[in-house]
TrEMBL record:
SUPFAM superfamilies according to UniProt: NAD(P)-binding Rossmann-fold domains
Protein name per UniProt: NAD-dependent epimerase/dehydratase domain-containing protein
Keywords: NAD
Domain NAD-dependent epimerase/dehydratase: 103-213
Any Pfam family hit: Epimerase
UniProt xrefs under Gene3D superfamilies: NAD(P)-binding Rossmann-like Domain
Source domain of life: Bacteria
InterPro entries found in the cross-reference section: Epimerase_deHydtase, NAD(P)-bd_dom_sf
Signal peptide: none
Length: 293
């Protein structure tokens, strides 16, 4: 059943980060109320300025959580593999009357696929510790849903980008490398397409479902950097073999997996039409916005 926008209930966001902020903007634009959490006291004032009712993560009143009609969690598991939201709030969540709950996971749960195309039916076979922790967190949310009847949905996100967090920012900051690992590709997903998919799921809930949030074109990372350089009028840096690249341990870990994500499910089931089907539309839109400032 399609959820009514006439009486939009509060949206509760565990973690008010990049993706949650985009989802919150859609909720606010539709006349809804948004509650969000942070662990940083210095962010409370800014959240209020964005019309978000803020709480520190460990100090959420029970009634604020119980009054939410929709709940979104973008909180990552701990290094021990525990989900902080469930650790702290599982007993209250079990009493929730929320009509929709979304958990933001990662496509890292699938592990290495040797460049093959995979959809949501692919086995969960993570090859990194981060991926394994996400599999455990997904299972914990589904276990709570089974015990309580909560309408939990899983959203497996590809590489997130958008204004202020993209290859353009890297290029303009002079930090760009064109790292080449033959055959390596990544999917990406624009933050506005994440928000639109969450909104579509709210309107057409399917508890227990998992969705790949990915663009239409898995692409080599060096091509994305080259396109960003071209937009910015900056010389394209030379290719650097993966073995010689200066990468953080986390960045290097992304190259341990190579897969192409199918996104037909969000289109067929939720009616999503990606605003940014490839990195080119996303980066071009960001550059155009910069040019108009």
């Amino acid at each position: 059943m399609t959820q009514s926008q006439d009486a939009l209930p509060p949206l509760f966001c565990f973690g008010y980060g990049f993706s949650a902020q985009a989802a919150a903007r859609l909720w606010l634009d539709a006349g809804g109320h948004v509650i969000g959490t942070t662990r940083d006291p210095s962010k409370l004032k800014q959240m209020r300025a964005e019309n978000i009712e803020p709480f520190l993560f460990d100090a959420v009143p029970d009634d604020s959580l119980l009054s939410a009609g929709a709940i979104l969690s973008s909180v990552a598991p701990t290094e021990a593999g525990d989900d902080p939201v469930l650790q702290r709030y599982a007993p209250i969540l079990a009493q929730s009357a929320a009509r929709w709950i979304g958990y933001l996971s990662t496509t890292g749960v699938y592990g290495e696929a040797n460049g093959a195309w995979i959809d949501e039916t692919a086995p969960l076979a993570p090859t990194t510790e981060r991926g394994r922790r996400r599999v455990e967190a997904e299972a914990a949310w589904l276990k709570l849903a089974e015990a309580s009847g909560l309408p939990v949905h899983l959203f497996r996100l590809s590489g997130i980008y958008g204004p202020g967090r993209s290859a353009l920012e890297t290029v303009l900051a002079g930090r760009a490398q064109r790292v080449e690992k033959p055959g390596q590709v990544f999917n990406r997903i624009h933050v506005e397409d994440i928000a639109a998919t969450l909104w579509a799921s709210w309107q057409k809930p399917n508890p227990g479902a998992a969705y790949n949030l990915a663009d239409d074109e898995p692409a080599p990372p060096q091509e994305v950097i080259a396109y960003a350089c071209t937009l910015a009028g900056i010389a394209v840096p030379p290719l650097v073999p993966f073995e010689d690249a200066q990468l953080s341990p986390m960045a290097r870990s992304f190259y341990a997996e190579n897969k192409r994500l199918k996104n037909q499910k969000i289109k067929a089931e939720l009616g999503v039409s990606l605003r940014y089907p490839t990195y080119r539309e996303g980066l071009s839109a960001e550059w155009q916005t910069r040019a108009e400032r």
